[in-house]
Amino acid sequence: MRKKFTYALLLLVISLMASPAAHGVTPQDDLDKEIAAFAERAIRQSSPDDLYLMRWEINENGDTIFTEELRPARVFARVSKQKGKEWRKYYRLVFNFNKVYPYALVGRKMMAQVDSTLAAEPLKRSERNHYIKSVERELFRIFEKDIRKMTISQGMVLMRLVDRECGMPPYDIIKTYEGEFAAGFWQFIARLFDADLKRRYDPQDKDNQIEELVQIWDSGDWDGFYWSIFWENPPRTVIKTEKLSSEVKKKK
After folding, report:
1. Residues with Cβ < 8 Å from 113, sequence gap 6 or more?
2. In DSSP terms, which residues pair with 67 in a beta bridge?
3. What is the gyration radius of the CA atoms in the chain, in angstroms?
4. Which end of the chain has the lower number of beta carbons within 10 A, N or C?
5. Under the phi-then-psi rule, with left for phi > 0, alpha for psi from -120 to 50, and beta for the rest, what region is 117?
């Protein structure tokens, strides 16, 4: 908001300088110079992406009025702490979702990058396998420490979100890139923890609470929602990178 105001102020200064009164000496000259100097400093400290042209109109008094449309904001009431098994389960879901959803979003970007690379040109089987292994090693370097620190319940939420963001259940993803045997092995491990890598994301039934949280996040209202439940701002998940550096090595 401060940067938007700065740019509006700059345009206001320009309109004043372009008016007939600006070419004579008026009591506002000193103030105009101070405002112009302030606006110039603000522009130098801003990047081009911070600036954009606002709509404006001139009223019957000759005043320039700038207008802006603000996104509707949802206000969440502070929820009293609730007791009971279902509330504890919901609190845990919100906390875990806040931690793992950024990984699902980055995973979608990385998977799209891998698919784009594989589809860009025909590859020999050995070249494809080498690239997949390279990606796998890089993913381990980026995420292994973070994922090992996750709880089982956080891992399960992440699996549901991976299916939602990538459009494939974890079993099919593993099968596509590692083969059916590897997918079967990890499905066996998942079943030991009462999880199913083959189950599809179901936003209307079993995963409806997760879907509700996704919608709140994507709407930009997550911070207010999280604060209304825990009475504090949500911890931020910091991910080192959103892009893979692995490349296909063509054999001569």
Report:
1. 243, 244
2. 55
3. 27
4. C
5. alpha
